[in-house]
Amino acid sequence: MRFTRRHPLLTVVLLCALAVLAARPADGDGFPAPGHGSASGVGAEVARLYEEAATATERYETGRREAEEQRARARRLEERLDRERRETAGLHEELGRIASSQYRDGGGLPLTAHMLLADDPEELMRGQRAVRQAEMSLDKAIGRSERAEARLARDEAKADAAWRRLEKRNTELAALREDIERKLEAARWKLQGQADASVTAGACRGAVRLDQPRTRFTTSWVAPVETYELSASYGSGGARWANRHTGQDFAVPIGTPVRAVGAGTVVRVSCGGAFGIEIVLRHADGYYTQYAHLAAVAVDQGERVWPGQWIGQSGTSGNSTGPHLHFEARITPETGSAVPPVPWLARRGVSL
C-alpha cells in the first residue's frame, strides 16, 4: 500500500511493461508460437479442404454412376415399350385383316341371312364361332398390350424424373467440388507464402497439428504420400543439382499430407537452405528418411511417429522448381549419405 501511494507512476509503467512482455510472441522471430497463430490455421484449412474435396469428388462419382444406371434402366424400359408397341400394331393389323375377310365373305349381312343363304349352315356357325373367339382373344390381347403400354409409360416417366433429379444433384455436386478446389488452391499458395517467409527468416513456425484420420496401417512401411506421380529419381543429373539427384521426387500439389514411411523419431525439423522446410526421421533399423521442400510441418523434434502418420504438408520451399516432395533414405541424418530410395522402400514391401 505504501509503495502504491508513493510511486503511482512507477506502478503504471511496470504494469504496462508486463502487459507488453505477455503480448510478445514466444520466439524472437516474430512468428506465432508452435501450434498457434495463422500458420496453423492455414495448414489445417488446407488439410480440411483436401478432405472436403475428396468427399465431394466421391459423392459426385457416386451420383454419376447412379445416373448412368438410371439411364440404362430408362433405355431398357423404352426398349420394352417399343416391343409392346410393335406387338400391338401387329394385333391391330390382324384385326383389320379379320374384319376385311368378314366383310368380303359376308357382305355385312346379319347372321340369319347368312344361314338362309349358306349351303351348309352348321359350317357357317362354326366359322362364326371361330371368328368371335378370335375377336375375343384379340380384344384381350389388345387390352393387355394397352395396360402394359400405360404401365411402361408411367415407369418411363418415373425413370426420367429420377434421372433428372440425379443430373440436378450431380450439377450441384460439381459446383460444390469446383468451389472447394478454388478455395483449396488459394489456401495452398497462402500456405506456401508463409513457408517461403519461414525459409527466408531461417526459422520454422512450429508444428501444424492436423486432425488426420487415425488410420492404422497393417504394414510397417508405407509410401510417403498417398497419390502421386514420380518425377526426378535418384542419381539423375541436371542443372538443379551440383552432382546427382540424391532422392526420389513425388510430384504432388502444395499442401498434400506427407506421411512417415515407418515408425521412428523426429531428429530434425529445419527451415532454410536448399531443402527449404525439411524433416528427418530416425528408424529402428538405423536408417534415416528425409522429407524436404515442405510447406508446413506437423511434428516437433524428438516426437515419436507411427507408419503413415501425417508429419507435414508438401510444398515448393527452398531450391525447388515446382510443388513436390523430395524423399531420401540415408544411413546418417546428414546430406551425402543417401541410398537409392526406391529399392530401399521395395525391400520393405513398398512398391512405387
Quick rundown:
Helix content is 53%, strand content 14%.
Key terms:
alpha+beta, ten-stranded antiparallel beta sheet, 352 residues
Could you walk me through the main structural features you see in this protein, from its secondary elements to its overall organization?
The protein is α+β, with helices and mostly antiparallel strands. The protein is built from six helices and ten strands. Strands 1, 2, 3, 4, 5, 6, 7, 8, 9 and 10 form a ten-stranded antiparallel beta sheet that branches. A hairpin with a 4-residue loop joins strand 5 (about 275-285) and strand 6 (about 290-295).
What is the topology?
Layout lengths: L1 H5 L1 H16 L13 H70 L4 H7 L3 H81 L27 E2 L17 E4 L5 E3 L4 E8 L5 E7 L4 E10 L6 E2 L4 E5 L10 E6 L7 E2 L1 H6 L6
Antiparallel strand pairs: 1-2, 2-9, 3-8, 4-5, 4-7, 5-6, 6-8, 6-9, 9-10
Helix pairs in contact: 3-5, 4-5
